[in-house]
Amino acid sequence: QVQLVESGGGSVQAGGSLRLSCTASEKQYCMGWFRQAPGKEREGVAGLCTVGGASYPASVMGRFTISRDSTKNTLYLQMNSLKPDDTAMYYCAASPRFAGPDVRLRVSSYNYWGQGTQVTVSS
């Protein structure tokens, strides 16, 4: 069973920045970041595979950047210009299989999940 451990969440004011990290116990082909606010469905905010570019939804495009350090099996999410609507529990996800850009933000594309890290943005 692949273990994913997230860190880096916290509380910031609107306009601020945070960087999330996720370390995997084994190298995975695709990794992504998802978030879930109370009463809402889990949504993908960034996805990245070892081949191809990153995928983002329109809601975070230009503000969030996903990256990975393959030597450390670590995934990052740099979040800038944060808004109160970004408040949610953020989860790291991983898959041993390739996922195309059109499915990289789907919950169903991933097999393994972290426990989550809370991000709270105040106005």
Q: Beta-strand percentage?
A: over 45%
The radius of gyration is: 13 Å
Helix content: under 10%
| Shape, principal axes of CA atoms | globular
Q: What is the overall pLDDT average? A: 95
Q: From N to C, what is the helix and strand string?
A: EEEEEEEEEE
Q: How far is the first residue's CA from the last residue's CA?
A: 40 Å
What structural class should be given to the helix and strand makeup?
Answer: mainly beta
Low-confidence stretches: none
State the total count of DSSP E strands. Answer: 10
Number of alpha- plus pi-helical segments: 0
Largest sheet: 6 strands, mixed
What's the topology here?
Blueprint: E1 4-7, E2 10-13, E3 18-24, E4 30-36, E5 43-49, E6 64-69, E7 74-79, E8 88-95, E9 112-113, E10 117-122
